[in-house]
Design a protein that fits this description.
It is a single chain. The protein has nine helices and nine strands. By secondary structure, it is α/β, with parallel strands linked by helices. β2 and β3 form a beta hairpin. α6 runs antiparallel to α8. The longest helix has 18 residues. It starts with 5 loop residues before the first strand and ends in an 8-residue tail after the last helix.
């Protein structure tokens, strides 16, 4: 066994829409977590694995954004995020470049003060601001919490992500590999496919609808003797009026979501895909424990 090999768990936290999934996808070099400019995109704790055979293995937990919950799904998501803080080896906290520390950040600082885990602050999106401003932002955050490290970076442009990895390895304990070196996620393919469809719906739809949609896979089966997978999936929304918008005029919206999703699913599975989408209404599913569970959000983990 390599004596200098390090391994451990790192949680990526931050308010919704600060670039957590973009950062993780960039570090892993493959798309696992869905990205969208709408908040509450990530709903589950997605586990991805980064392996460097020289230095070690990092298991990333991409948690839902920490925010004030408005319904049972929101409560579940915040619980998942806050629950992980004490269980990991390193916390990676992403913030936007700003001199202003808002209520959302103050709430996160309060949670961080309850744990002893080293926290690396990543000031993301620095490609959007003037360079000489960055030192001011670092100074603002340095005063409110004792960070192990502060790293300015751009997840989207891939700037300074090597330094982010260096800092993570610096604080990880020595230990064995948890996963094979070619493992990149613990998510089953079905879950990733459902998330890709949800992402494409989020991109295509108006602001007020996306929070209220979920996707589940009814069937995913390879055709015998052919290089093609048949996938049937259902998009669930909360209101009849939403159903009409998801389907669109003459089915145009559903077609757009389907073709965008199919393209990406084919890249993921490296095979042709025949994707069929349906739309169903389940009123107020985000406030129903049993429905939240049905859509793959496991409350027992909390």
């Amino acid at each position: 066994m390599n004596e200098s090999f390090k391994s451990g768990f790192v949680t990526i936290i931050g308010r919704p829409n600060v670039g957590k999934s973009t950062l993780m996808n960039h570090l892993i070099g493959q798309k696992i977590a869905i990205t969208s400019n709408k908040p509450q995109t990530t709903r589950n704790r997605i586990q991805t694995v980064y392996t460097d055979m020289e230095r070690g293995q990092i298991v990333f937990l991409d948690t839902p954004g920490i925010h004030q919950a408005k319904n049972k799904l929101g409560e579940y998501m915040v619980n998942v995020a806050e629950h992980t803080l004490g269980e990991v080896d390193v916390i990676l906290w992403l913030v936007e470049p700003s001199n202003f520390i808002g209520a959302g950040e103050q709430h996160i600082i309060k949670q961080l003060k309850k744990v002893k885990t080293p926290v690396i602050l990543v000031i993301n999106k620095v490609d959007m601001v003037e360079r000489d401003k960055i030192l001011e932002f670092i100074d603002t955050y340095r005063k409110v919490y004792e960070f192990a490290e502060i790293v300015p970076a751009s997840a989207l442009r891939g700037q300074n992500l090597d330094t982010v990895l260096d800092m993570i390895f610096k604080y990880l304990p020595y230990g064995p590999q948890f996963y094979d070196e070619d493992t990149i996620t613990d998510q089953p393919e079905r879950a990733i496919v459902a998330e890709i469809i949800r992402e494409k719906a989020l991109h295509a739809l108006d602001d007020e609808i996306p929070h209220g949609i979920a996707v589940y896979i009814d069937r995913m089966k390879s055709r015998k003797g052919q290089n093609i997978i048949d996938i049937d999936a259902t998009i669930v929304c909360e209101r009849d009026s939403h159903k009409g918008i998801v389907i669109g005029k003459g089915g145009a919206m559903l077609k757009k979501i389907g073709s965008n999703a199919r393209y990406e699913i084919e890249r993921l599975l490296e095979t042709k895909v025949n994707l069929k989408l349906w739309v169903k209404v389940k009123k107020d599913w985000r406030d129903s424990d049993s429905m939240i569970k049905n859509f793959g959000y496991n409350k027992d983990e909390l």
